[in-house]
Amino acid sequence: MTTTAPLAEPIRVRGLQKSYKDLHVLRGVDFGVARGSVFALLGSNGAGKTTVVKILSTLLKADAGTATVNGFDVATRGAEVRESISLTGQFAAVDEILTGRENLVLVAQLRHLKHPGTIAADLLERFSLTEAAGRKVSTYSGGMRRRLDIAMSLIGSPPVIFLDEPTTGLDPEGRIEVWRAVRELAQHGTTVLLTTQYLDEAEHLADRIAILHHGRIIVTGTLAELKRLLPPAKVEYVEKQPSLEEVFLAIVGSEGKDANADLDRSAGLDGSTRLNGSTATDD
């Protein structure tokens, strides 16, 4: 009996191009992603990051170039590509009427998997959502919804996951929760393509980083390799001051978010209303 060796690069992109009339979104994109690694596609708004993800997930056809996912050409073997991937978009695709457990069970049933309850329980524990499993998702914080969204994307054990700006709209605690979940994906052997416009996110999570600018990859490498592109820094003694994020987390603590959520509910505020009265799509 023969077995197929795991691909060294489950994601390979060569010369990818995409235009909308006179607007050239992708101008020849090339990169590869090693198995079991986190690859960050870093760029500003409009750089073409989401377009790359849509092409790789067969939601959009490229004008030129080639792309393979898990060994399957996205242009000619779309069904096999879709069976190999999971896509988490910029906004959590969860059903707020259902509980966290019910969301996971529903997806497992839709995938015709055996023992959906066991699958849900395992993922709830893995993403630290067991205590909130019986609550409706409408009561979840932004970070909890995003973790549930990522957990749902793992049902069926896809070897490749696309995370398109997964921390958009999250507060500092929510971002850290998602970062922890992304690290766990790679530790379990999942290949992750992460798009982001946040420099610190790429710095914290990525094994390799590609900077996409005006539709082209202008540089690719590890964080250490990218840092070597600049002249060595002059070493001086500087008193380190805590960042605002460190101050925020030190003051609020790990239980602050749940406390705020409880206050919101007791005050009759919906999920789009902050305690200070401003509104946002995620709390």
Description:
It is built from 10 helices and 10 strands. It starts with 10 loop residues before the first strand and ends in a 17-residue tail after the last helix. It has a single domain (11-229, 244-266), classed as 3-Layer(aba) Sandwich (Rossmann fold), CATH 3.40.50. 39% of the residues are buried. Helix content is 34%, strand content 22%. It has helices spanning 49-56, 78-84, 100-110, 116-126, 142-153, 172-187, 199-205, 223-227, 244-252, 256-266, and strands spanning 11-20, 23-33, 38-42, 64-69, 72-73, 85-88, 160-164, 191-196, 208-213, 216-221. The strands form 2 sheets. A 6-stranded mixed sheet has the order 6-7-8-3-9-10, with helices on both faces. Strands 2-1-4-5 form a 4-stranded antiparallel sheet, with helices on one face. Helix 5 runs parallel beside helix 6. The radius of gyration is 20 Å and the shape is globular. The model is unreliable at 269-283 (pLDDT under 50). The protein is an alpha/beta fold.
Give the topology.
Layout: E1 11-20, E2 23-33, E3 38-42, H1 49-56, E4 64-69, E5 72-73, H2 78-84, E6 85-88, H3 100-110, H4 116-126, H5 142-153, E7 160-164, H6 172-187, E8 191-196, H7 199-205, E9 208-213, E10 216-221, H8 223-227, H9 244-252, H10 256-266
Parallel strand pairs: 3-8, 3-9, 6-7, 7-8
Antiparallel strand pairs: 1-2, 1-4, 4-5, 9-10
Total helical elements: 10
Instruction: Give the overall pLDDT as a whole number.
Output: 85
Strand content: 15-25%
CATH homology superfamily: P-loop containing nucleotide triphosphate hydrolases
Q: Identify the quaternary structure here.
A: single chain
Proportion of residues in helical segments: 25-40%
| Strand line-up of the largest beta sheet | 6-7-8-3-9-10
Distance between the termini: 53 Å
- How would the global form be characterised? globular
How many structural domains can be distinguished in the coordinates? 1
The name of the CATH topology is Rossmann fold
**Can you count the beta strands?**
10
The top-level CATH class is Alpha Beta
Radius of gyration: 20 Å
Unreliable runs, pLDDT <50, ≥5 residues?
Answer: 269-283
The CATH architecture assignment turns out to be 3-Layer(aba) Sandwich
> Largest beta sheet, briefly?
6 strands, mixed
Listing every helix as H and every strand as E from the N terminus to the C terminus, the arrangement reads EEEHEEHEHHHEHEHEEHHH
Briefly note the structural class of the backbone.
alpha/beta
